[in-house]
User: What shape does this take?
Amino acid sequence: MTTVAVIGGGVIGLAIAWRCLERGHEVSVHDPDPGGGATGVAAGMLAATGEARFGEEPLHRLLLAAARRWPEFAAALASASKKDLSYRSDGTVLVAGTDDDLRAVTRLVDFHRRCGLPVQPLTAAEVREREPLLSPRVRGGAFLPDDGQVDPRRVARALMSLVPVSDTPPEDAELTVIAAGHASAGLVPGLPVRPVKGQILRLRGMGLTRVIRGHVANRSVYIVPRADGEVVVGATEEERGTDTTVTAGGVLDLLRPAVALVPGLAEYELVEATAGLRPGTPDNAPLIGVVRPGVVVATGHYRDGVLLAPVTADAIVELLDTGELPELVKPFHPNRFTDVHR
Amino acid sequence: MTTVAVIGGGVIGLAIAWRCLERGHEVSVHDPDPGGGATGVAAGMLAATGEARFGEEPLHRLLLAAARRWPEFAAALASASKKDLSYRSDGTVLVAGTDDDLRAVTRLVDFHRRCGLPVQPLTAAEVREREPLLSPRVRGGAFLPDDGQVDPRRVARALMSLVPVSDTPPEDAELTVIAAGHASAGLVPGLPVRPVKGQILRLRGMGLTRVIRGHVANRSVYIVPRADGEVVVGATEEERGTDTTVTAGGVLDLLRPAVALVPGLAEYELVEATAGLRPGTPDNAPLIGVVRPGVVVATGHYRDGVLLAPVTADAIVELLDTGELPELVKPFHPNRFTDVHR
Assistant: This one.
């Protein structure tokens, strides 16, 4: 039994805390606003290719492993918390708005195949059979049967019901886990994590059935309908320091491609427009590793924090069990950017 | 001295109440949510041509008279209430986004000339000299030096500070004034007034100096910057009954032309998106007249309630003084649509 203090109550920190508690460790989470950072503005797409990033091999392995762990994680969390997470694993529709976008979608389809992931290319007519609310103007797409989604706010609430969260700084613990998103940079000098602003919309309306990953005029947009009628549209990526202003341009950049792909969204209620700060890193891959004795970092998950929460939590559990992080996670030590420490 | 009960605490009802009080009458206003109807979602443009409607001669006379009365009304209200109304009369810039729109602007310029209103046609370069934040793509426009603006919420608050407002129904009064906007139809059977939904945005940011009445791809949009940094963008016109949902399509229909005309608005904060119900009529002109002994109607001001508030208030004062409405207002009796009563 180890005493563990987790700094940061987003999905990463909360998932770590819950998995450690399950293993019998003594755990506390410290966050003045748990669930209020990047978690609160995440859409919760669970895409094994991350959000369609073409990165390096170790990151692909991590994302694939993360996607595979979600079904068990979702079932265990729903059972332990007795809460509905709005978890679904019934696939995602990739859609191209223009011929240019169709080329981008084709590259993604090839990428899925190379990763050994199931993918089904679709003509324009077939893509509209999958999701009849799509515009007659869409040029084609693909079906990704293994992709899923979950409501990140529900995940955070479920985890918060299971772990002790405090708004005070931690007492001394045997292991301190720094999972404070972009703010982790203020806790570990030199940690290469920065805020990347994301604006996101919540609409409300019925009829849309499928998660849509759209490409329109070289812009990407995702549209995530949930069973309760909420439809999340996201997300911008902006380098604006810690500014979290919702701007006219951010909202326009989301609504324009979303309504172009799904004209019926125009009739949906605009319930909320929010902005949050994702933890970005120089190579868009997470920062997971022991930075000094008794202190481990778990941040930098950028756009994939929800997807990567279970695999990150399992890595910290393994660190407690064995004294080492799993091989899967070793390539993501924060010192990978500084040649001298390699 | 007459006892006057005004049903409806929007700018029309409140202005009537204030002017009647000033003349020594005993006045009460009845509204469970004063200032909360069409007033709360009005931009407060004071355009002598109404919102650029090409209507009939009596309506033009009324709008012109209304515009002429605003300077005195604004000065008297600011003085009596000791409140700043954000009143300005430094002109409006008409702007065309495309060649098609330029033809629409040219028609408006001709219309202003025929009305004897000052108007100054501007080339694309000249229009950008007037308002440097306009896009280099604008095709031309005009300057309307007599148009002004006022903050309708401030006007309502100033008036509310001067008149007694109650949320209970009125007691018996010698004169009952029905100024309840579209809801007046529920108080006077057969009154031809209906709700017309308008969605409006409030942005925040500095730099824009001029009120802009824009035409972009056959859509009109107005952009009203106030001294305190608030920028109102309006407004949609939708026939949706009493629905006041803010929709994705409504917000998109405002942001798209506004950002096309003034690209810098993309950086402005989106503070609020709201929807309200204007009182529309079959001919888009107001309904002002005695409908039965002791009951006068003053509604149906559609998009011009703020502009028409002073002239409407003066008309009711004249009714109390002389027993008759002024000639200017007589063409707007609600019975004008029913031949049998003419």
Summary: Helices of chain A lie at 11-22, 57-81, 99-114, 124-130, 152-160, 248-261, 305-322. Chain A has two domains: 3-85+150-193+282-336, 92-145+195-279. The longest strand of chain A covers residues 269-280. The interface with chain B takes residues 201, 203, 245-252, 255-256, 258-259, 265-270, 273 of chain A (CB under 8 Å).
